[in-house]
Specification:
Structural class of chain A: alpha/beta
Oligomer: homodimer
Number of strands of chain A: 10
Radius of gyration of chain A: 20 Å
Amino acid sequence: MNSPLYWDNEASDALQRMLDSYPAIYLLCDTNTKKHCLPLLYNICSKTRKITTFCIPTGEKNKNLTTLNHIWQFLFEQKAIRKSLLLCLGGGILCDMGGFAAATWKRGIDFALIPTTLMAQADAAIGGKTAINFNQVKNQIGLFQPAVSTLFFTDLLHSLPQKELRSGFAEMLKHGLISDAKYWDRLQKLNSIDNILQEPQLIRQSAVIKQKITSQDFKEQNLRLILNFGHTLGHAIESATKGRISHGEAVIQGMQAAARLSFEKGMLSSDDEKKIREGLSKFYGKNNIFTSISAAQLLPYLQHDKKRDNSSFNFTLLKKIGEAKPNLHVSEGDIRKIWDNQPQ
Amino acid sequence: MNSPLYWDNEASDALQRMLDSYPAIYLLCDTNTKKHCLPLLYNICSKTRKITTFCIPTGEKNKNLTTLNHIWQFLFEQKAIRKSLLLCLGGGILCDMGGFAAATWKRGIDFALIPTTLMAQADAAIGGKTAINFNQVKNQIGLFQPAVSTLFFTDLLHSLPQKELRSGFAEMLKHGLISDAKYWDRLQKLNSIDNILQEPQLIRQSAVIKQKITSQDFKEQNLRLILNFGHTLGHAIESATKGRISHGEAVIQGMQAAARLSFEKGMLSSDDEKKIREGLSKFYGKNNIFTSISAAQLLPYLQHDKKRDNSSFNFTLLKKIGEAKPNLHVSEGDIRKIWDNQPQ
């Protein structure tokens, strides 16, 4: 059920094949990708200039029904037929929304993703999750629907601001923590997050780890839940802090807290918990969940988490660096406890 | 990919099993089914009284994003978890909307359908199509997603007004025309549409014909398109007449015209075309598409039909009674021609 992934030259070829085979192609971009990424796409393939583009506003606050409605309205006005293709040129937010709009237009037209941020290339564009937020709660409405192709152009990353790199790199660290200790070690050898742009094979490896996990459990029945490591708390932090903390930073804090929970529940050694804490701090500094927010502020935002079972929260925790276990029950008490027993 | 179908006693048992196995169950009804159908459901199974119900307004004009948003809002307020079940108690419109809301809530919760109209029992509730209208154009946004179960209670049909029977019966005639000449003949033996309530096995057979076709081509790549017989024009009539003509009556007129097109294109014998014309008139009178609307009024509403290819309209036509052929190209000229060469 997964989407085929193509990099650079292979991605150019795949794009050309799509331009030749679909009778109607539309492109969704946002104000950033229109300025910084669309020209590069035009350079790759002159035919892309003939595609009708539609531009949506950027940002998590626009990942909602209003923007979705605008995309549907665009497809409506274009009289987009079932055999159309929607190219989504953007970060995770745009790819999530564009994928959902396409998957529901006339009961589903094809879409292809061209991720333009480190976050999207290393993580979000892989695995077929599409969604919008609802009542400010993340990804409450959506679908599992794979893109027909996912095209990675490494050059797109060079114009990214530092905070985008910080955000995406968090997911790369996560992929190491949950399933590949050697990959975690390789990331730890970088001097700073910026250096990742000189090591594109590390970005590609992150996408491949994600692809491997999602292809084994496309609909998130079990294994795939390990990708939520750090995210159950991370999403709650994002909601509770009204977007003041970026997704990546929130996930870093969520992973620190989830590692702490793993240790408190006797699953993770204190040695590994310390390595994780220091390995995350190396790149993200000493800011942590305990200084960002209180347990009391955070807990109400956990109520709507969609992996929550009725009586307790459903967490992914770590057994060691490189091995995660999904579907573990964590109580409100467990969460309050890590605030009381903070690492020194 | 199709949903299992259960009738009467078997449906009661299936309902009981669902009530026992889902941790959270919600029921979607409308003002009609709340009054006329919910009490019967309560009689069947006392546990259903404990289900939280949500009532939406009836009618095609409410099959839109606003009502969909209300259903999502209900699920949000109920904190509906992924393991929830949504029971949809209503006609085709409610089942289409409830199915879509469920299939997109948290990337998909289960839903079961309890069709309450002849149209829904004989046709609409079978085959996994979910949708809402968009800009007054039918079913522009939706998904193919099968219900976990479809439960038929024949008793629900006895409170239906005559116009509902007329609407549903049109689809039963269609099932005969496109794939079962013997079934068409059996329907022709009825003295009036009302008599169908004394012949529940004919209703069941209609559902079974639909199930057989949709199970061979769930995503409507080819064979399933035969179910659109009469609908390409029928939908356009509905849109062009702003709902003054019911779906069933519009489909009858669409089938008359499509049979005429089949004849004009040399596919259908004049004998069969006459039998169809008379067989439809027997139950629906002499009103036809040619007296309802002009070709010029109709054509603009064909533009948005989602089975339309770029250069021509994509039609299902008949080779004989009981055999249809999908994916035939019909031009604007072909359509104008049948107005000029009307049967006498």
